[in-house]
Amino acid sequence: MARPLVVPVEEKVRIVLSVLAGEVTVAEAARRARVSEQSVGNWKRQFLEAGRTGLASGKSGPSTREGQLEAEIADLTQALGEATLQARVWKKSAEGRLGPSRTSR
Q1: pTM here?
Q2: What is the rounded distance in angstroms from the CA atom of residue 57 to the CA atom of residue 51?
Q3: Is residue 10 situated within a structural domain?
Q4: 27 and 46 share a domain?
Q5: What whole-number distance in Å separates Cα of residue 97 and Cα of residue 43?
Q6: Residue range of the domain that includes 33
Q7: How many domains, the chain?
Q8: H-type helices in 1-105, by residue range?
């Protein structure tokens, strides 16, 4: 059995918008993209549901999950900066007690 074709998101959006605009039928879009009509129908349904959810929530900003991920990125970035600074301090401290390292020549 052949592996299904992976269609990029941008292509899915273009296909769904052309179907919604009435430029092509679901069958024609599926044939052109070499996928099943069911796939195009699923993409259309998912596209419309996501739009409905966005309108219902009334939010134009990032989702709750996106906000959580952004906060986590900020925390990790800060922790990395602190760890880097601490490593530099330890290195300087060790060089002061032991003299310059042989690898730093």
Answers
A1: 0.52
A2: 10
A3: yes
A4: yes
A5: 65
A6: 1-60
A7: 2
A8: 9-20, 26-33, 37-57, 64-98
Query: How far apart (Å, rounded) are the C-alpha atoms in residues 38 and 27?
Result: 9
DSSP code of 102?
Answer: G
| pLDDT score at 55 | 81
Are residues 41 and 49 in contact, defined by beta-carbon separation less than 8 angstroms?
no
**How many angstroms separate the CA atoms of 25 and 20, rounded?**
9
49 shares a domain with 66 = no
Q: Which phi and psi (to 5°) does residue 23 adopt?
A: -70, -35
55 and 10 assigned to the same domain: yes
26, 19 in Cβ contact below 8 A? yes
The pLDDT > 70 percentage for the chain reads 85
Assigned token pair, 29 = 């879009």
Q: Determine, yes or no, domain membership for 27.
A: yes
Task: Give Cβ neighbours of residue 70 (< 8 Å, ≥ 6 apart).
Answer: 62
pLDDT of residue 1: 53
